[in-house]
Design goal:
heterodimer, A: 173 residues, mainly alpha, 2 domains, 8 helices, B: mainly alpha, 12 helices, elongated
Chain lengths: 173, 253
Amino acid sequence: MIDLNLLKIAQPEAIENVYKTHRKAFIAFGVKYGLAEDELLDIYQDTIIAFIENIRKGHLENLQVEVKTYLFSIGKYLIFSKLKSKNDINTTIEDLPDNFVWEELEEENEERLTEISASLQSLGEQCYKILTMFYYEEKKLDEIQKILKYDNKDVLKSQKSRCLNHLKKLLKK
Amino acid sequence: MFESPEKTTKKMSPDKEILIEKYFEKQLSSNEKQLFDEALKNDEEFKTAFDFEKSVKDGIHFQERDALKKMLQGFEEKPQKKIIPFRNWLWLGAAASLVIGFSLWLFLGNQASSEELYLSYYQSYPNVVAPIVRGENTQDEKLRAFAAYEEENYPMAQTLFHQLFEKTKEEYAIFYEGQCYFASGETQKGIQLLECFNFSDNKYPFKTQQKWYLALGYLKLGEVEKAKKYLQILVGYENIQKENAGNLLEKLH
């Protein structure tokens, strides 16, 4: 039984558990679409990443279906995207499951993204926490204030602004 | 808006900052959405501020996804090393010289078998603590230690983790220092380090993995009974290595 709360805090053991539990069945399921095993493994890893991302964003609070069913429908979507990128014109993209959001990052921006990502790591833990909660986990400032125990929202807001300014300076270097 | 003026050279009006904040919180009313769209189109300062925050958002997504991808890749079983069957080799040796005593044969045979088992189960534990950005030189000690670890520069990583533990007393530093010893074949040192440390229950699975690596370490040294002791603990409760521990125990009987 997979505890979604442990995935929500990105606990490595829970992630390893969910990853290993469905890996074999997923590859077997994907083979019929004519993709090679290494491509499917790559897609399976992205499926898990997308799944955990949605849990962390709070989109799957009331998951009504089994984790396996959910993973396979995300996987199917990603498999179809892959087939489409290979110019398989007969392919239409399957719909994503309800409440599920997956934004592709533009590949041409990779250099810039790597740069930002590296600067984020130099920011210090508190800044990284605040920015991740706000921009990645999509928590509202009120929630972040409670979780990180700020006296009031304004203190948190000015801390967030300082973090962004610091990041801006790091990127200019 | 809530920061002191000297902190920023240009200050946007509070209303506009709130618009951006609400955009990311997905809280814009239809009226505000209209104001937002107009500002994005006509107000360069607003657009620059928004674009920057949007790029931060993308950068964090990139970082988090990349980190998780590496973690998942680390969970993949390593390709099984082709093991030369030790007994066959021994048989050739014996056929050539016929001087090896039965007890020595038995001794070497057992040792080979636990070494073989060790080789087929051992893989270094992936970095689940500090994801490293590709190609980045960093001065941060924690990241330097993990970068060396990921590059399989174990002696360097061991030294860095050791210094890090002296300084911070963080559990992960001890755990990965132990990993460095195991990975570089200094099994005895790895065992000594891991065995005397009491890991706490926290986000990271060090408490379980400690037992697993101690079992493997003893297996490598041919101390099968000590290895079994740790495996038996692992099969006794729900954890990620329970199945592996059960399989390994069966093979040791």
